[in-house]
Design a protein that fits this description.
The complex is a heterodimer of chains A (601) and B (350). Chain A has 601 residues and is α+β, with helices and mostly antiparallel strands. Chain A is built from 14 helices and 26 strands. The radius of gyration of chain A is 30 Å and the shape is globular. The chains are: A alpha+beta (601), B mainly alpha (350).
Chain lengths: 601, 350
């Protein structure tokens, strides 16, 4: 088995890592970053830009630059989360024929798994370049509250990117794995994850290698970027009071403020006071204006106190849902870059009564856990066994729209469960089996998976017929549901395969499409390399000419300069053949220069 | 197990039944015994039938303990009766050897497995190491360039500020410059010198104004809708970018031209929000909006969640509950309930 990479596919950022020689390596992207923004840009030249580069063109191409697609994956168009997103994003979210939320870009409709697939594909390429080997398998993490549809959609995204997704694991589980939990210890862990744009709190129980998610809560619109914004707002206010100039409309100034704010925030994680110095930030009739402010940690904490407080309530709710007291929690793990701020650690300590762990880089810990899980699969990690569990309970609807769970969440897979049901009115001949997934007691609050009917029950007083309903779920998440009337032996059954809304045929088509786009990229990259080569050759040749060229005969000088000038024009060409011809010409010219130099000496 | 209350709720078609399985169990046990008896009859097994088991066919491993004890007893008894101690000793020895062979065999197969495992491991390690070596070599080559980049990245803001200072002074007229004019000239030269040093190291500024916008080198922070330049062209440089070879040290921060949107009446969009033809209009509106946003708050354009966050904290907490997408099934759920109702009535009547 070749290497299995671990991917943290985040709402704002992604991180890839791999287990190598017993330690986890973070795989940097082409630009050298250890995390990659989950942003995809489509240009009118049919290019697909991913990561920082997509972000850099977002302003000029906002309708075709997609971000936070994770919020859409496996969701219906009319879901409240999707509705909320539609109001804020500049790209167009449309309803697919099956009711799913899709995205329309440049007259083409994309499903969220396709977009995530494009991101994953780049991550895969970066990993292949880093490891010098083909990558086929991956572990991808998802939030603990993702249902089977969302998990399947994530799986399909991997497939489109040419990855066999060996496992989908929960983000908090991955974080706990990275911290070495799950080795024959039984513990309860709280994972506090404050990322760029979302906040999640999960309570896990680890029992005999099974990572059970006891509860989750959070705030999908709270993240580190809000913290930066507070510093920016503070600086703007300060400057306005000082000089009477509003920097809000000055884009360059805002950019500088943003960078300075982020830097100050990071510095305040380790020192008590930092200096923000932005000379020549603006100017008016009286002369240039500078920002030279000092921000103390106390002031910063005052600025963000309400943001931090907003994370406390979900924590308490999660504890309540898990029916635990703070003392019951054995360990608290911090995930997400924003948790580096001491105020977070302090608040978490107040809530859970113990110091949280943050030794592992909180931006990378989830991806590292996924890589460790990859190691478990390849056999590199021996002392951990991970058992697949059902993420959310499966059951069906009964009298009054109540939800009866047949297979509770966290059950290890595969699993089969049977319960006997009966009719509620006299002479009832039909029962509807409506299969749902979720934790709520009311059916309509859970995700509807499928329904079918069992007909032909012989007339009998209510409560008399006995109908056995059996749920059997395998390790791939495929659920077989059957209903049998005990008296007549009449049986109805159906299979529910988790689906992201994409058919196998569609997925195959998208895989091919993704591969061709990579081919195009490769060509483009080759072109850039060629250009660089030509540019270097030209520079060296020109340097030689300015240094020693004056000693050459005038005609020769003119000829050489002419050739170099022509070659310089080719730099702008997009024709690979033309550039390689120019490279050959300049190379031969360079050797003629060398010859001339030697004869001159 | 009946979850439903005994109120006469006529809306329900289906409920959890009492799990009364004992009756069924007893039936099946009886049946089982009857089946066994039938089988015995078929095989002509009576209480007088004797069973002969060949020792060679006998697998000790599968004999239940209580039978083993019984057997051992008979062996001892027989040994006592027949008095063939030598024979017993031989048998003991054979048994011992057999056991030994068995344990050795299992040991060998265990070792073989281990060997295969080790071989696989070492192959993988070798491959990993080769890849690692190649990577280290590549990284070693890149290190110098990277170091240079890092140094430049740290130094560039200082140079920016120097240039900003010069720009400010350059805007002054000669009388204002007065006696520092010479000093100013000197500083201009210093700045020039710095740029030359950078160029000597291969660090060159990125071309901007008039070039086609290229996100590999440029970072767009604003769009220009008025201007004569073709769309997607850099119209202004807000911050100078630098590169070393193909590697960008810092991207140029630029303004980019954009074709003025064809003047489409926005009212039409409002009056006609139907799904029949949303693309063109919606896109236009979105872009307009984007331009506006960009005009004020650069960062929100790229990450609009942050803007939302403050206003929505309170609701969002609720929205983030598990499962977060509860109400998306709301409509279907409602329908289902309806279905149940109609069916129930039908079922009840028939």
């Amino acid at each position: 088995m070749s290497k299995v990479i671990g991917i943290d596919l985040g709402t704002t950022n992604c991180c890839v890592s791999v287990l190598e020689g017993g330690t986890v390596q973070i795989i940097p992207n082409k630009e050298g970053g250890r995390t990659t923004p989950s942003v995809v840009g489509f240009t009118d030249k049919d290019e697909r830009l991913v990561g920082q580069i997509a972000k850099r063109q977002a302003v000029t191409n906002s309708a075709n630059t997609l971000y936070a697609v994770k919020r859409l994956i496996g969701r219906k168009f009319n879901a409240p989360e999707v509705e909320k997103m539609r109001q804020t994003v500049p790209f167009e979210i449309v309803e697919a024929p099956n009711g799913d939320a899709h995205i329309k870009v440049l007259d083409r409709v994309y499903s969220p798994p396709e977009i995530s697939g494009i991101v994953l594909q780049r991550l895969k390429l970066a990993a292949e370049e880093f490891l010098g080997d083909k990558i086929r398998e991956a572990i991808i993490t998802v939030p603990a509250y993702f249902d089977d549809m969302q998990r399947q959609a994530t799986r399909d995204a991997g497939k489109i990117a040419g990855l066999e997704v060996e496992r989908i694991i929960n983000e908090p589980t991955a974080a706990a794995l990275a911290y070495g939990f799950g080795k024959n210890t039984n513990e309860k862990i709280a994972v506090y994850d404050l990322g760029g744009g979302t906040f999640d709190i999960s309570i896990l129980e680890i029992k005999d290698s099974v990572f059970e998610v006891l509860s989750t809560s959070g705030n999908t619109f709270l993240g580190g970027e809000d913290f930066d914004q507070r510093i920016i707002d503070w600086l703007i206010e300060l400057f306005k009071a000082d000089c009477g100039i509003d920097l809000k409309s000055d884009r360059l100034a805002l950019q500088r403020l943003k960078e300075a704010a982020e830097r100050a925030k990071c510095e305040l994680s380790s020192v008590a006071e930092t200096n923000i110095s932005l000379p020549f930030i603006a100017a008016d009739a009286t002369g240039p204006k500078h920002i030279n402010a000092s921000l103390t940690r106390d002031k910063f904490e005052e600025l963000v106190q309400d943001l931090v407080d907003a994370s406390v309530e979900p924590c308490q709710k999660a504890l309540w849902d898990a029916k635990l007291k703070p003392n019951d929690i054995d360990k608290v793990i911090l995930v997400g870059g924003q948790t580096r701020s001491p105020i977070i650690a302090r608040t978490v300590k107040e809530v859970f009564g113990k110091d949280p762990s943050s030794e592992i880089n909180p931006d990378e810990v989830v991806s590292m856990g996924a890589a460790i899980q990859g190691g478990v699969l390849t056999g590199d990690v021996k002392d951990i066994v991970l058992v697949d569990v059902l993420p959310l309970s499966l059951g069906l609807e009964t009298r009054g729209g109540l939800f009866v769970k047949l297979i509770p969440r966290n059950s290890s897979l595969p699993k089969t469960e049977t319960k006997t049901f009966t009719t509620v009115v006299d002479n009832q001949q039909t029962v509807e089996i409506h299969i749902l997934q979720g934790e709520r007691e009311i059916s309509r609050e859970n995700r509807s998976l499928a329904k079918f009917e069992l007909v032909g029950i012989p007339p009998a007083p209510r409560g008399t017929p006995q109908i056995d309903v059996t749920f059997a779920i395998d390790t791939n998440g495929i659920v077989n549901v059957s209903a049998q009337d005990k008296m007549t032996g009449l049986e109805q059954a159906m299979q529910i395969t988790p689906s992201s809304g994409l058919s196998p045929g569609e997925i195959d088509r998208l895989i091919i499409e993704a591969e061709t786009s990579i081919e195009r990229d490769r060509e483009e990259r080759d072109l850039i390399n060629q250009r660089n080569q030509l540019e270097n050759l030209l520079r060296n040749a020109r340097k030689a000419m300015t240094e020693v060229g004056k000693t050459f005969p005038l005609e020769f000088q003119q000829e050489i300069n002419g050739i170099l000038g022509e070659a310089h024009e080719v730099l702008k060409s997009a024709d690979s053949n033309e550039i390689s011809r120019a490279i050959a010409t300049v190379e031969s010219t360079a050797s003629r220069i060398t010859e001339a130099m030697l004869t001159a000496v | 197990m009946d979850l439903t209350k005994e109120n006469d709720d006529k809306q329900i078609t289906f409920e959890l039944a009492d799990e009364d399985e004992s009756a069924e169990d007893s039936v099946s046990v009886d049946e089982f015994i009857r089946e066994l008896e039938a089988k015995e009859k078929d095989l002509h097994i009576t209480s007088e039938t004797t069973f002969i088991e060949l020792e060679s066919e006998f697998d000790e491993g599968e004999v239940p303990d209580f039978i083993k004890e019984e057997l051992d007893k008979t062996v001892i008894e027989r040994a006592g009766k027949v008095d063939t101690k030598g024979n017993t000793a031989d048998r003991e020895a054979i048994r011992k050897f057999e056991a030994e062979v068995k344990s050795l065999r299992s040991k060998v197969s265990g070792l073989e497995e281990e060997r295969v495992e080790l071989q696989k491991n070492s192959q993988r390690r070798t491959r990993d190491f080769e890849a690692y070596k190649a990577r280290t070599e590549r990284e070693r080559l890149e290190t110098f360039e990277k170091l240079l980049c890092n140094l430049a990245t740290e130094m560039l803001p200082v140079l920016d500020n120097l240039e900003r200072a010069l720009q400010f002074a350059a805007d002054k007229n000669d009388t204002e410059k007065g006696e520092i004019s010479q000093f100013f000239q000197g500083i201009v030269l210093v700045n020039q010198q710095v740029n030359e040093v950078l160029a000597g190291m291969g660090i060159v500024p990125i071309a901007t104004v008039g070039e086609v916008f290229d996100p590999h080198f440029h970072e767009a922070v604003a769009v220009d809708t008025d201007g004569d330049l073709p769309p997607n062209t850099v119209t202004a440089e807000l911050l100078k970018g630098f590169r070393i070879g193909g590697r960008v040290i810092r991207h140029s921060m630029v303004k980019v031209s954009k074709a003025a949107e064809p003047p489409k009446p926005v009212e039409t969009e409002e009056a006609e929000p139907s799904e029949t033809e949303p693309p063109a209009e919606a896109t236009t509106a979105d872009q307009d909006e984007a331009v506006d946003t960009a005009g004020q708050e650069t960062y929100e354009t790229s990450e609009p969640e942050s803007t939302e966050a403050k206003a929505d904290n309170a609701e969002a907490t609720d929205a983030a509950d598990v499962p977060p997408d509860d109400s998306e099934t709301e409509e279907t759920g409602f329908e289902i309930e309806r279905n149940g109702e109609t069916e129930m009535i039908e079922g009840g009547k028939v």
